[in-house]
Amino acid sequence: MVDCVVIGGGLIGMLSAWELRQSGLSVTIVEQGKCGMESSWAGGGILSPLYPWRYADPVTALARWSQQHYPDFIQRLHEHSGIDPQLQKNGLLILDTEDAAAATAWAQRWDYRLAQPGADEIRSLEPALAELSDSSLWMPEVAHVRNPRLLKSLKKSLLNQGVKILEHCAAESFLQARGSVQGVVLENETLLAANVVVAGGAWSGKLLASTGVDLPVRPVRGQMILYRGEPGVVSRIILSQDRYVIPRRDGRVLVGSTLEETGFDKSTTESARVALAAEARRLIPVLAEYDIEYHWAGLRPASPEGIPYISAHPDMAGLYVNAGHFRNGVVLGLASSRLLVDIMLGREPIIAPQVYEISLDH
Ligand SMILES: Cc1cc2nc3c(=O)[nH]c(=O)nc-3n(C[C@H](O)[C@H](O)[C@H](O)COP(=O)(O)OP(=O)(O)OC[C@H]3O[C@@H](n4cnc5c(N)ncnc54)[C@H](O)[C@@H]3O)c2cc1C
Q1: Whether 340 contacts 323, CB under 8 Å
Q2: Closest C-alpha among 325, 303, 317 to residue 147
Q3: How many whole angstroms from 301 Cα to the centroid of ligand 1?
Q4: For ligand 1, is residue 33 a contact (CB within 6 Å)?
Q5: Segment 95-104, tens digit of pLDDT
Q6: Residues 200, 207: contact at Cβ < 8 Å?
Q7: What letter does residue 249 receive in the DSSP assignment?
Q8: What is the pLDDT of residues 292-311, one digit of tens each?
Q9: 43 in ligand 1 pocket by Cβ < 6 Å?
Q10: Which of 2, 180, 310, 337 could crosslink 16 through cysteines, CB 3.0-4.6 Å?
Q11: Could you tell me if 177 and 97 are in contact, meaning their C-beta atoms sit under 8 angstroms apart?
Q12: What is d(CA 9, CA 257) in angstroms, rounded to the nearest whole number?
């Protein structure tokens, strides 16, 4: 019998496992494919929501906590695993937005640094830009991580800490007795556990359906392309008309992303590739000189307003959920996993938890 089984080896499942293990619990992760190969791998790794002032306060509260704690966490992971997730604080430049008043009010309320740069400043921040817009915003403290490396680093660190990881192992249902969860049923065996955390990303609702909860989390496809650039070609995260460009340390440049309601279909389309490449050239013309190295898609776990469920199950003791982070699982995940474990262990929560709760109406 293990203290906790975590279902799902994406970023949210692995961060939940990290928090549980750091709190002294024994943990097993079950993952139907390979850990960290779904939405968490497909994402851009920006440690901020895009247009963050457009989100409800519960999203900002989680983002704020994570942003304050990511640098230390990344340093610890790097030391512990030997794999550097490459956190870079190179700022977010938002072009062509009419939101300056709302953004400024939001930044003042939450104490974020946000400026409205003039043309010369924009040019010096990002010399590769094609056009300078006089309605831009600049958030110098926004960072990003290289999420595939973060996932590798986290997995290695979890294994080093004695967390058991079962891959190619789908959880089929829950073992339950007298209103409490007793474990997880897999295809060929049953794992006994005192607690179970569902962190199944876009698939979480499917698993919970058998427990009387209709979790409104659905897959929303996002496609991205990757240029094999050179270091220094792009310096900042650039956001314009909901499309963005992210420079990696080795010169690679990500361009994303689409938002598509295509169910669990993860295929890529030629039309998205063409549209993303056109957007990349519009923003940073020099990218036309580089090859597109890769094009992929991932399924974001979308919830209403992008507010994740971080909660005990309303009707089954010992069962918990950490899912529905939509476009922001990388930035929200550190806080949501800490909050979940606070709830599980009855500790003082880092953030008031009620707004993230699942009720039986779901
Ligand atoms: C194109 C794109 C760009 C993005 N950019 C960003 C960004 O810049 N910043 C940011 O913060 N967020 C970003 N995101 C969002 C972020 O990636 C997600 O919110 C986050 O990865 C969700 O993590 P997760 O662990 O819940 O889901 P996933 O990574 O999808 O992991 C869920 C895991 O659960 C497993 N699973 C499901 N059901 C079962 C079962 N029954 N048994 C066993 N295993 C199961 C799945 O196989 C999967 O591995 C982006 C997403 C996409 C697609």
Answers
A1: no
A2: 325
A3: 7
A4: yes
A5: 988 899 999 9
A6: yes
A7: T
A8: 999 999 999 999 999 999 99
A9: yes
A10: 337
A11: no
A12: 23
What predicted TM-score, i.e. pTM, was given to this entire model?
0.98
Q: Is 235 left (phi over 0), alpha (psi -120 to 50) or beta?
A: alpha
CB 196 within 8 A of CB 317: no
Q: Which class does domain 92-140+218-302 fall in?
A: alpha beta
Index of the ligand 1 atom closest to the CA of residue 258: 1
Pairing of strands 137-139, 243-247: unpaired
Domain ranges for the chain:
1-88+143-217+304-362, 92-140+218-302
Cβ neighbours around 122 below 10 Å, total: 20
Distance CA 112, CA 47 (A): 13
The Cα–Cα gap between 142 and 239 comes to: 12
- The CATH number of 1-88+143-217+304-362, from 3.30.70.120, 3.50.50.60, 3.10.450.50, 3.20.20.70, is 3.50.50.60
Pocket flag, ligand 1, residue 38 (CB < 6 Å): yes
What SS3 state is found at 66?
Answer: helix
Per this entry, what is the length of the chain?
362
Instruction: Copy the structure tokens of residue 267.
Output: 């295929």
Residue 221 gets the label, from left (phi > 0), alpha (psi -120 to 50) or beta, of beta
The per-residue pLDDT for 121 is 92
